[in-house]
Design goal:
heterodimer; A: 537 residues; alpha+beta; Multidrug efflux transporter AcrB transmembrane fold; Alpha-Beta Plaits; 3 domains; seven-stranded antiparallel β-sheet; four-stranded antiparallel β-sheet; 16% strand; disordered C terminus; B: 362 residues; 2 domains; two-stranded antiparallel sheet; 9% strand
């Protein structure tokens, strides 16, 4: 077998392989550097886990639905290269959200919002005018609908509205959100009067039970509402998009599509509402107990699709569409871990990692050159090509399967320097052993390889095994580390088998290497073989 | 370097031989003391778990100069914000690290804003980490599961590739390494973070990697010795140890240099962080791992192997042969004497012998 080994051929394959990788890396696409994890370039990482009542199991369907909602929300932030991934399954699943760059600190709240979305007919509206109210009864409130067309914008309302004065005496605990009532009777009207949106906790959101009556406020605390039980809930909405009307007139609007069941409910509701007078012809869109918008209904809407129009800005329309579409998550979520790293710090960490890696590599190079001399040069060249291949693979995998290089990945790479260099050390020590046995260099190189190969493969197998197990059984940063370690172990095997071996064999045939010079690193004299004994073989 | 090369030559030919296997009781004693110490410290002091395991919030605020005043200022800011700091420490000379018990996101946003104001830094430059209390359990559970699966698979692999005694010896060395590394953490009070756990898990791989390399040589040297009567199993294994000693030293140096560089660069540039947590566990683990594959795994392997019938018979034949005085052909009786044997004559004055590989079957 050893006789048939042709060093030139494997070297050629190796070089062609590297050129292939180079072309693959630098020709197509726009990215020629590895994708960096957020700990190297700054950003926010949130790890969420489902919170379920005891005894309940999470179906894959629920999980996928949750993740797709979160993904939409993340995409809604408009940050390029944000990522949402699932690790694990069932109740132990983790949802990992990564948003690169500088992000608002409120991102986390927006992600985990379980967001209950309800559509409730309006019973009464109070625009909070300073004028004293004449009528404390919600249903009797004579406030006018802001515009004839559907509009939720309170600013559009010019009509002064009678406002109930918060002088009605109501026990304070009755005003703790959610302010709900089973039938809307009793002190419901008094509670409506007594509520002061600016002072209440209502705007922080609360658990809104759809089947009950509700008193709540507009998001900006400007308006308060008394609302009937919900006609529609979030899951009745199939889709919602923001856009400009096709005729080009008017401002932004939100187009709604209902599910089949939702369409029926919506038809019933709008038929009922359109016959009523303002404000009772309005329905409020309530997210977590807070009114987002309260459009009026002009006519019964049968087809299951509707348009919410009004004086929306583009941003308002998009935000409303977002809430309508992705409002309700099927399950609650716990925040397991939040990490926010500024780009400056990320850059520092990257720099430190690179400096540490470079410095470590330099020390290894010096050590190898001092100890193995000419063989050391081969070792250094092998390390360099392993480093180059690894870099190219980082780029390619970053583009192909979204591999991101994190700090722990860098650490894995630095650790792998040792394991890679060890393959050469095992090989070289074997060659030297054979020379000590009195073999000629050429024979020693072949014998040494056939023995070292076994050891290298066995040892690398253990290393791969630990990387694979770490990868499959862990989450987050451990995975990045394991992946890099495993990848480089493969690179190590390729380099040792195709590059190092070929070069050593080539060199072993050269005249100089056989000259016995101390600089070859394989000098028989320096390896304690007398000139005469080296002829034994 | 040249002297290491010379040592390598002498070790290879057996001119210099350290009797490692024969003095196993000494190594066992050293390891036993370290392990007892580790377990005792673990029991008494326990591990200093990072917030990832306890749950809580951590803020890292960059400051121009971190000193006692800035620590006090940070503490006061946190208290003024209505939270209780569980620790405020200086990190890397230009950062203040504040840890508090678990905070809701609103509270953490408020505190981060307060800190930004108090230290006049951009809020975006404050690193914030919030960890739910269950997260650490999750990490630990995953790590333990990984450990178990790994041990089973590795035991199977070693039993197939080598033999079951080698699997047992390798796993004992592994347990030894992990115990002592964890012990170093308990003793020094270094914080255990998920990164340190990665480090521990890597040690598993590395420790076995090193053991596999040594055992491969032991396997080679002991192959076919039962046909003859020149050396006992322990003697052959000891020679293997000596022959791979230089490789072990080189490999350890090459593996430890980058890790050391992470530690030095990491500490001087970043203060504490993922890199250092990882590097520290690796540094300790690799040192202990190299030690154990030579001084624990192989002696233990020999102890088990010497009990097998064929090796008892072999030892009898070897001793009988030595008694009859036919010592010139026998391998140097390294196991009989304690100290490293340096032959009185230098290597160059030695008789030219047939290469060892030709004498024993291979």
């Amino acid at each position: 077998m050893a006789q048939h080994y042709r060093p030139g051929r494997s070297l050629l394959i190796f070089i062609v392989g590297i050129i292939g990788l180079l072309v693959w890396t630098f020709l197509p696409g726009d990215r020629h550097t590895p994708r960096l994890g957020l700990d190297l370039r700054g950003g926010t990482q949130v790890i969420l886990s489902p919170s379920l009542p005891a005894g309940q199991t999470l179906s894959q369907d629920q999980l996928n639905q949750t993740v797709s909602i979160i993904r939409q929300r993340v995409d809604g932030f408009g940050v390029a290269e944000s990522e949402v991934t699932i690790q694990g399954s069932g109740n132990g699943a983790k949802i990992i959200v990564t948003i690169p760059g500088e992000t608002s600190r409120t991102v986390v709240d927006q992600l985990k919002t379980t967001a209950q979305l309800n559509f409730r007919p309006v019973l009464a509206i109070d625009y909070g005018s300073p004028k004293p109210s004449a009528s404390p009864k919600p249903s009797a409130s004579g406030s006018a609908s802001p515009t004839a067309s559907a509009s939720a914008s309170p600013s559009a309302s010019a009509s002064p509205t009678p406002s109930p004065k918060p002088s009605v005496s109501v026990a304070p605990e009755l005003l703790i959100p959610p302010i709900q009532s089973k039938d809307g009777s009793g002190d419901f009207a008094d509670r409506f009067s007594a509520l002061d949106c600016a002072k209440s906790d209502i705007l922080k959101g609360s658990n809104d039970i759809p089947a009950q009556y509700l008193i709540t406020c507009q998001k900006d605390a400007s308006v308060k509402y008394a609302l009937a039980p919900a006609d529609l809930v979030g899951t009745d909405i199939a889709s919602a998009t923001a856009g400009l009307p096709q005729q080009g007139a008017g401002g932004w609007q939100v187009d709604l599509k209902m599910t089949t069941e939702g369409a029926k409910k919506f038809a019933d509701s709008t038929t009922k509402l359109s016959k009523l007078k303002a404000p009772n012809n309005q329905f409020a869109i309530i997210l977590d107990g807070v009114v987002i918008s309260a459009p009026a209904v002009n006519e019964a809407i049968i087809g299951g699709s509707a348009i919410i129009s009004g004086s929306f800005t583009a941003d308002e329309a998009r935000a409303l569409a977002q809430v309508l579409k992705y409002g309700a998550l099927p399950i609650g979520l716990n925040v397991d871990e939040v990490q926010q790293i500024s780009p400056t710090l990320g850059n520092d960490q990257l720099k430190a990692g690179l400096i540490a890696g470079g410095f470590g590599l330099l020390l290894v190079v010096i050590y190898l050159l001092l100890y193995y001399r000419a063989l050391g040069v081969i070792a250094v060249a092998s390390l360099a090509s392993a480093a180059a291949i690894t870099y190219l693979l980082f780029v390619i995998l970053g583009r192909g399967i979204g591999f991101t290089l994190t700090l722990s990945g860098v650490a894995g790479a630095i650790v792998a320097i040792g394991i890679t260099a060890d393959s050469f050390i095992i090989y070289f020590e074997r060659i030297r052993d054979e020379i000590r046995e009195g073999k000629r260099l050429r024979a020693a190189v072949e014998q040494g390889w056939s023995r070292a190969r076994r050891t290298i493969l066995a040892a690398d197998f253990v290393s791969l095994l630990s990387a694979a197990i770490l990868y499959y059984l862990s989450v987050g940063s451990v995975r990045g580390f394991a992946f890099t370690l495993g990848l480089i172990t493969f690179v190590d095997i390729a380099v040792a088998f195709m590059f190092t071996r070929s070069l050593v064999t080539r060199l072993g045939n050269s005249h100089w290497m056989n000259s016995g010079s101390a600089w070859t690193g394989v000098s028989p004299t320096r390896l304690g073989v007398k000139a005469s004994t080296s002829e034994v073989n | 370097m040249a002297s290491l090369s010379q040592l390598g030559n002498s070790l290879y030919r057996g001119d210099v031989s350290y009797n490692i296997v024969g003095r196993r009781k000494a190594w066992y004693l050293v390891s036993a003391i370290l392990i007892v110490l580790s377990i005792a410290t673990l029991g008494v002091r326990g591990l200093n778990l990072g917030i990832e395991f306890k749950g809580g919030a951590e803020f890292s605020v960059p400051v121009e100069v971190a000193n006692d005043q800035s620590v006090t200022k940070a503490r006061e800011t946190v208290i003024a914000a209505g939270e209780s700091p569980s620790s405020v420490t200086i990190v890397g000379g230009n950062k203040i690290r504040i840890q508090t018990p678990a905070l809701a996101t609103e509270a953490s946003n408020a505190l981060s804003a307060a800190l930004a104001k108090s230290f006049a830094v951009d809020e975006a430059n404050i690193k914030v980490q919030l960890v739910g209390p269950s997260w650490g359990d999750e990490v630990t559970k995953n790590a333990l599961r990984a450990l178990l699966v790994f041990l089973i698979l590795v035991a199977i692999f070693l039993s197939i590739y080598f033999e079951w005694q080698m699997a047992v010896a390798g796993l004992i060395a592994l347990a030894h390494d992990v115990l002592i590394t964890v012990g170093v953490y308990a003793l020094s009070g270094f914080e255990v973070t998920p990164a340190s756990v990665i480090g521990f898990l890597t040690i598993l791989g590395y420790s076995l990697y090193d053991t596999v390399v040594v055992f491969d040589k032991v396997k080679e040297n002991t192959h076919g010795i039962h046909g003859g009567s020149r050396a006992t199993y322990s003697e052959s294994a000891n020679l293997a140890l000596n022959q791979t000693l230089v490789r072990s030293i080189n490999t350890s140096a090459v593996a430890l240099l980058p890790v050391l560089s992470i530690l030095v660069v990491g500490v001087s540039l970043l203060g504490v962080g993922t890199l250092n947590d990882l590097a520290l566990a690796l540094f300790v683990g690799m040192l202990v791992g190299t030690y154990s594959s030579i001084f624990v795994a192989t002696p233990f392997l020999c102890q088990m192997k010497e009990r097998t019938a064929e090796n008892i018979a072999l030892a009898k034949r070897v001793h009988a042969r030595r008694k009859t005085g036919d010592a010139s052909e026998a391998i140097k009786p390294v196991v009989a004497i304690g100290a490293p044997i340096v032959s009185s004559a230098g290597p160059r004055q030695q008789q030219v012998k047939k290469p060892r590989s030709r004498r024993s079957g291979k």
